[in-house]
Design a protein that fits this description.
CATH class of the largest domain: Alpha Beta
Radius of gyration: 16 Å
Strand order of the largest sheet: 6-5-2-7-8-9
Oligomer: single chain
CATH superfamily of the largest domain: HAD superfamily/HAD-like
Largest sheet: 6 strands, parallel
Number of domains: 2
Helix content: 25-40%
Order of helices and strands: EEEHHHHEHEHEHEHEEEE
Number of helices: 8
CATH architecture of the largest domain: 3-Layer(aba) Sandwich
Number of strands: 11
Shape: globular
Distance between the termini: 6 Å
Structural class: alpha/beta
Amino acid sequence: MPIFQCSAILFDLDGVLADSTRSVDRQWRIWARAKGVDEEKVMAIAHGVRAIEVIRRVAPQFDAEAEVRELEALEADDRLDVSAMPGALELLKSIPDDRWGVVTSGTHLLASTRLPLVGLPLPKVLVTADDVIHGKPHPEPYLKGAERLGFPPGDCLVIEDAPAGIQAAHAGGMKVIGLMSTFGAAQLSEADLVLKSLDQIQVACDAGRLVVRAG
């Protein structure tokens, strides 16, 4: 069983802690059809990156900030097909509150709505699309998460479900566990370890260090 030692763990939200892929897909497709945008082009890049960057790429003619506010308000209100990922609550409970955080490409509105909706606690450290200039795959979001937790980036472990997030974590000098909830193993191959479920991860605290057993 692979073992990682670290001081803190940074989680992505959608597809890692929250099972929301169907909701995210649905709202993006509704948005694309309403705006006359090729929905397949949208879906090809929609997961794991900030909505504002998706819109700027597929529909540069629109006011991206206004479109994001509209889209994410709809996502925040969408309670269908949204639940906690198996093992998420138990895993979070096993980690001291000051040793984990959430780093998401969604907005603060969406993240602060979605976590309570699925029965998960709000973290002490929450980095959202509103907090960064550069979204994933740029390392800024994960570097900011490590900074706010108070640990060196190289002493943080990231759990991600998207290639862009894996690239962001590695660019920040962090190890990554990839979770096969949104993408297959081949697309997550850059991760240091790929798992099917959070149920396969156990965390213990030993002399101030987190010992993460996975597999």
